[in-house]
Amino acid sequence: SNCSPCQATPTCNDGIQNGDETGVDCGGSNCAPCQTDDSGKIKVIIKPDNYGSEIYWELLDENYNVVASGGPYSDGDTTIKRKTITADAGCYTFYIEDAYGDGICCDYGSGWYKIKDESNNVLASSNGQYGSWEEKSFCTGPQRLGNPKKTRRDEKRMDLPKKESTK
User: Fold this and answer.
1) What's the gap between Cα 164 and its chain centre?
2) Which DSSP string do the residues of 22-82 spell out, in sequence order?
């Protein structure tokens, strides 16, 4: 044969970007479109304590619009709760509250939560010891490693006059 060097015919499942593909095995005239960088998955994984009915959470975008929410769950059901949200790349705040004020660890069970992206990178996590509520900010997509913007609540907190410590 007269190959010099031999070139395999490009396919949409050969694991390399070739032919007129715009990404590895995607785009171009023959393959499925490539997934754009501006949307991905945010996975919320929560292990409730024994009082799931006290748990409520929200995922908020940079403008504090609720993108997703979850809870309350059933009391006595400590199985892991998972919710996958398709979301644009950007910065988000995960807000979780406990109606009783004891978080999801450790008086009545050992709860925790993690927020992951589609590649299972942990974007935020907690040991569940947050009392009444807590919020965690994180970014996804190309800016995942950047610092999240300050949330509105952070700004409000920073606007408060500094109290002199009396301790």
Assistant:
1) 37
2) SBTTBSTTTSPPPPPTTEEEEEEEEE--SBGGGEEEEEE-TT--EEEEE----BT--SPEE
Q: Give the Cα separation of 100 and 85 in Å (integer).
A: 27
Distance CA 84, CA 42 (A): 6
Bridge partners for 116 per DSSP: 43, 122
User: Using an 8 Å Cβ cutoff, are 103 and 131 in contact?
Assistant: yes
Token representation of residue 95:
């807000």
Residue that wins the pLDDT comparison between 122 and 23: 122
Which pTM was predicted? Answer: 0.65
Write out pLDDT tens, residues 101-120.
999 999 999 999 999 998 88
Q: Which residues contact 64 (CB under 8 A, 6 or more apart)?
A: 93, 151, 152
What is the rounded distance in angstroms from the CA atom of residue 64 to the CA atom of residue 95? 11
Which DSSP string corresponds to 136-154?
EEEE-GGGTTSPPPPPHHH
